Amino acid sequence: MKASPSQFYKFMQRPDTQFVIPIYQRNYDWSEEQCKQLLDDIIDVGRYSREDMRVHFVGS
Residues in domain GmrSD restriction endonucleases N-terminal (predicted)? Predict the structure, then answer.
């Protein structure tokens, strides 16, 4: 899989958007706090206006 820059709001508007946990990540055990932090980060990115969009890395 090759990563490429994308506008988050456009990514979230796509009807085929899926979040997948890669097989190599399934061996790690995330606590509720780590899951909450990830969700909070995603929500924070979504709050930026399109004009004030900052770069935010999501992925590997």
Answer: 10-60
pLDDT digits (tens, 9 = 90+) for 6-43: 777 777 788 887 766 677 766 677 788 888 888 888 78
CA separation, residue 23 to residues 4, 34, 39, 41, 47 (Å) = 21, 18, 20, 23, 30
Q: What does pTM read for this prediction?
A: 0.49
Cα(31)–Cα(26) distance, integer angstroms: 13
Interior CA angle at 59 toward 31 and 28, to 5°? 30
d(CA 14, CA 23): 24
Q: Could you tell me the CA-to-CA distances from 25 to 21, 44, 51, 58 in Å, in that order?
A: 6, 24, 34, 15
